[in-house]
Amino acid sequence: MGSANEHIRVSSSVKERLDSLRGDDESYNDVLERLVEKQSEKDFETGFGILSGSDTSGHVEAVREAMDEQMADRLDAVTDSDRA
Fold this sequence. Notes:
By secondary structure, the protein is mainly α. It contains three helices and no strands.
């Protein structure tokens, strides 16, 4: 993991919690980096499926289908004009 070049203040209770999460060969920076990465992955995964089963999902699907049809029509128009 990266090297630390900044200092941050934490309360003694936070330090104790970091100590409990820290592996034998881990620095505090390593622990914090691991925790931040886990949270980032969790945040990313949270959005998947959020619209399934909602009224919004049907609307989004309808808009997507309409956009697909518009794109197909535009491609057909371009293809037809190239043939002419």
